[in-house]
Amino acid sequence: MHLNSDDEVILLGCSNGLDLDEQVRLKITSLYDCLVNEFNLKVNISPTIYIDPINNETHDATYRKEELYNALIDPNIKAIFDLSGGDLALEVLNQFTEDDWRAIESISDKFYLGYSDNTVIINALLLKTNVKAVNFLATNIVKDKSGIAKDSFKRVLFNNERINRGSTTPNKLDESAIIIGGNIRCYLKLAGTPYFNLDNADGLLLEGLSGDINKMRSYFSQLDLLNILDRMKFVVIGQFSEIKEKGQEDELYKLVQTYQNKYNFKLYFTDYVGHHEAVYPFIMN
């Protein structure tokens, strides 16, 4: 499965809406122009990517859910690019009913791209549908000055190349593997919800923006208590921004290796998944 020229896509937001200032609008305009002029896509823009101009708050959860649902069931939409992040994506999941999921459970010819707080959307789609879920923020293709994000976006989503797992180790991950997780803080929001466990998951992806080594010790303890780590064949560790900023990467690696020794899962590291701009689209399924 891959995107083609003239495919129709949509830009939307399930989490916090973006500000309406000029700088943000220029960024979205730049992305739109790139997708249309360089990738020859037909691009729709949902108002949910921005805050509601009437009350200067993120749009109502019901509206955000309807925009996502309609994009999922629309056979003309081949990819959903979620440009939001923050704290509010879980509100959208709370609006879905079992009837909604039944209506979209067989959909397989569509990509959903999101990151950070939209980890909760990604994992729900992995559990409830056959949508191709991708950990990636589309605005990085115009923000990343190195060109890595744009090049990998083309190679993965248009050329269907196997850099999609982004592993820096010599061993490529199994292309058929199903990987859960994403942002560690946001993934743990799903604990206790119907969207947390995926019985046929092979691996776990973890990355993070905020959180020092003490928070990571707590998060990994929670993953262990939830019996996630003992079920994984492998774990992929992306970039943890605050950990990197504080020079605590060695401590993080030792922490993860403690659990590797306990459960004997394979361990991979990648610099190309995280909250920075030079990232690859990481396909989860």
Q: What is the topological layout?
A:
Layout lengths: L7 E5 L9 H16 L4 E4 L15 H13 L3 E6 L6 H5 L4 H7 L6 E4 L4 H10 L3 E4 L4 H4 L4 H11 L20 E5 H4 L15 E6 L4 H13 L8 E7 H5 L3 H15 L2 E4 L12 E2 L2
Parallel strand pairs: 1-2, 1-3, 3-4, 4-5, 6-7, 7-8, 8-9
Antiparallel strand pairs: 5-10
Helix pairs in contact: 9-11
Anisotropy-based shape: globular
Q: How many structural domains?
A: 2
Rounded mean pLDDT is: 93
Q: How large a portion of the residues is in β-strands, by DSSP E?
A: 15-25%
Helix count? 11
CATH topology description of the largest domain: Rossmann fold
Low-pLDDT segments: none
Describe the protein's architecture and organization.
It is a single chain. It is built from eleven helices and ten strands. It has 285 residues and is an alpha/beta fold. The chain has two domains: 8-163, Rossmann fold; 179-269, Glucose Oxidase, domain 1, CATH 3.50.30. The strands form two sheets. A six-stranded mixed β-sheet has the order 2-1-3-4-5-10, with helices on both faces. It has a four-stranded parallel β-sheet with strand order 6-7-8-9. Helix 9 links the parallel strand 7 (203-208) and strand 8 (234-240). Helix 9 (213-225) packs parallel to helix 11 (249-263). The mean pLDDT is 93.
